[in-house]
Amino acid sequence: MELRDKIIYQIFVRDYSEEGNLQGLIKNLDTLLSTGGDIFYLMPIQPLGKIGRKGTYGSPYSIQDYEKIDPLNGNEEDLKEFTSLLHYKGKKVILDMVFNHTSRDSKLSKEHPDWFYQKDGKPVNRIKDWSDVADLNHSVKGVDEYLIDKVLKKYVSLGIDGFRFDVTSLIPPSFFKKAKEALGKDCLFLGEVVDTKFLNYLRAIGIPSYSNGEYAASGMELFYPYASWGWLQDYLEGRSDSLAPYEAAFSLEEASLPYDCLVTRAIENHDRKRIASYSKEESFTRSLLAFSFFTKGPAFVYNGEERKATHHPDIFEKETIPQEVLDKDYYDFYQKLVSLKHREKNTSLRYSEILSTKENVLLVKNSFENNKVEYGVFNLSKKHELPYTLPCKGKDLLSGKEVKEEVLLSSPLWIETE
User: What is the H or E stretch that residue 396 is in?
Assistant: First the structure.
């Protein structure tokens, strides 16, 4: 599946509509399609556990039965209808899978307690904060076979084109090698390999955890930007006054993966703050959004991001995300980014690299197979306007204007060189 010119659009079914179910998505299909999404990613839709439940509804990542769809979300016919409609429009659908753990009162914990990590003869979780779940032990015979043959294959039969795997780092790479062989190379695997600082913490306390490279060797082709995220997050949240550490982490992250593997520069999702919440400066918000679209991997959009939402929904409750366009200028800017991402040219995008973070402006270079280059200039300095020297003159594809080397930087630039 070609991904370099694609947009992944994440949906929390409970929060997308007042109905909070798959039919709510179907009724709003035109609105969904208007976002420019190519691959629609559904957060977990299975029934949730009750023991240790967090909040009113519980975490969508504390699953009681992998093989069923929660009646609150709909049923198998609804899922088949949704995937069929999107396939007809030339789109794909991927589904979140939570294979590190189940709810404490899951079907598997009752039928196969030996499939879990144990303490005093009972299934347990290895990470204390995750008190509503019990961890599967993938080294036990039968676990992987069940998850592949009974779960993944079932959802493929309902029209699912791939999977996003929760906390991938805690699941042995060997599982994904077996799953890829069983489902075929066209089944997309998006891995949530956890951020570097958390990965190091897990290893320090003796919990086996794995990195991007190990999963790439097992057939996984797409990753979150979490090997570098911590250093960008430190800057965005004010714990660092420089983007230089992020530049180094970004470079290492890209260089450590095989050429045919990709990183989606997702800034916001159900776990991360909204892009528009980091600053009141419009130019800062637009620069962060544009950066997430510019690089080699597919763009990633969390429902509401395209409308400059600032409120981050509580995943343990029901909070309907407004779908109306309130800021037309911002939405038009978003749509311009969509059109730039969808260019056929991007399928020949060879490499993305950060050339400079001087004055906390991200200068990013995209190199294409025909030796053409484009530059992205993203002002994250917290200064509304900043004198800046560009590496070349050319055409800013966002504004349609010609730019020279010396500019007063007040908004992001996407420069096509002469």
Answer: strand 394-396
Distance, in Å, from the CA atom of 264 to the CA atom of 352, rounded to the nearest integer, reads 12
Angle ∠(389,393,396) on CA atoms, nearest 5: 100
Which ranges of 295-327 would DSSP assign to H, the alpha helix? none
pLDDT of residue 299: 98
Q: What is d(CA 337, CA 183) in angstroms, rounded to the nearest whole number?
A: 33
Q: Are 316 and 58 in contact (CB under 8 A)?
A: yes
Query: DSSP code of 307?
Result: G
Tokens found for residue 277: 């919440």
Q: Left, alpha or beta for 167 (phi > 0: left; psi -120 to 50: alpha)?
A: left
Torsions phi, psi for 253 (to 5 deg): -60, -50
The 8 Å CB, 24+ separation contacts for 241-245 are 242/357, 242/360, 243/357, 243/360, 243/362, 243/380, 244/357
What CA–CA distance (Å, rounded) separates 266 from 191?
13
Query: How many helices and strands, by DSSP H and E, does the chain display?
Result: 14, 20
The β-bridge relationship of strands 373-379 and 406-409 is unpaired
Residue-wise pLDDT for 199-242, tens only, equals: 999 999 999 999 999 999 999 999 999 999 999 999 999 999 99
Helix (H, G, I), strand (E, B) or coil at 16: helix
Judged against a pLDDT cut of 90, whether residue 264 lies above it is answered with yes
The whole model's pTM is what? 0.97
Closest CA to 338 of 92, 33, 36, 10: 36
- Taking the C-alpha atoms of residue 260 and residue 291, their distance in angstroms, rounded to an integer, is 21
Return the pLDDT at 384.
Answer: 85
- Say what the pLDDT of residue 321 is: 95
pLDDT, tens digit, for every residue of 337-394? Answer: 999 999 999 999 999 999 999 999 999 999 999 889 999 999 999 888 999 999 999 9
